């Protein structure tokens, strides 16, 4: 499973990138707002840092607006994936932009039927929002499973990009189901390394080592 980082915080991206944990980046208007930076500046900086796809989201509600914005965003760098919402306007923009050979990430997906439409419109990525479904007592992981089944039934090449990931368990479940990509905030990716038994075991080893009086270097 590829790891995308869901943030416009360039320091956080750089830190994970140094460890080889960044296969791509996703942003959205809320994350750009949180960064406090100009969308083109911050997106360019991210694209220069990361070799993989960097999603930048359009903000128009109509297809023509999304297409025009998408073309502008695509000028930022060769690794831009244009993010459009899963509306009929977004699907139309997806069809046009993907037809131009551009990567398109169709976002705000909350049903398998929506995901089927996105694949037919030529989406490079479909972004089902797991956490937001869980927030309203629906099952985000069930949606990932359903989309996996449908895409595999018909050999769609659209990649499932599990989004709105909130926990380490979400990452594990997405990987078990076979999501192609999971995009998560930096703190979730960092937390994947944490285990109380690892900490406890290391403490015990080092305590014993101290009593030997030995050094390695
Ligand atoms: O990738 C989409 C993500 O940014 C939404 O996450 O936690 O705001 O639902 P969240």
CATH homologous superfamily label: Aldolase class I
Bound molecules: SN-glycerol-3-phosphate
How many structural domains are formed by the residues? 1
Using the coordinates above, name the CATH class.
Alpha Beta
* Helix-strand string: EHEHHEHEHEHEHHEHEHH
State the strand order across the main sheet. Answer: 1-2-3-4-5-6-7-8
Q: First CA to last CA: what distance?
A: 37 Å
Structural class: alpha/beta
Average pLDDT reading = 98
Over the alpha carbons, how many angstroms does the gyration radius reach?
Answer: 20 Å
Helix percent band: 40-55%
- The fraction of residues assigned to DSSP E strands is 15-25%
List the uncertain runs: none
**CATH architecture designation:** Alpha-Beta Barrel
CATH topology: TIM Barrel
Query: Number of helical segments?
Result: 11
Largest sheet: number of strands, sense, barrel closure: 8 strands, parallel, barrel
The total of beta strands comes to: 8
């Amino acid at each position: 499973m590829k790891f995308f980082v869901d943030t416009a915080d360039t320091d956080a991206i750089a830190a994970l990138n140094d460890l080889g944990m960044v296969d791509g980046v996703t942003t959205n208007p809320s994350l750009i707002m949180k960064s406090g930076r100009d969308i083109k500046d911050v997106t360019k900086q991210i694209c220069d840092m990361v070799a993989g796809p960097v999603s930048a989201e359009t903000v128009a509600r109509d297809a023509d607006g999304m297409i025009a914005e998408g073309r502008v965003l695509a000028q930022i760098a060769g690794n831009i994936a244009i993010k459009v919402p899963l509306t009929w306007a977004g699907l139309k923009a997806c069809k046009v932009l993907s037809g131009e050979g551009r990567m398109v990430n169709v976002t705000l997906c909350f049903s398998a039927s929506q995901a089927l439409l996105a694949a037919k419109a030529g989406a490079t990525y479909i972004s089902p929002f797991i956490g937001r479904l869980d927030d309203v007592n629906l099952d985000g992981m069930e949606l990932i499973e359903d989309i996996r089944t449908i895409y595999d039934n018909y050999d769609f090449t659209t990649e499932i990009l599990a989004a709105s990931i909130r926990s380490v368990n979400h990452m594990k479940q997405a990987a078990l189901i076979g999501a192609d990509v999971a995009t998560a905030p930096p703190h979730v990716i960092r937390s994947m390394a944490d285990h109380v038994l690892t900490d406890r075991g290391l403490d015990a080893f080092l305590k014993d080592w101290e009593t030997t009086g030995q050094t390695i270097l």
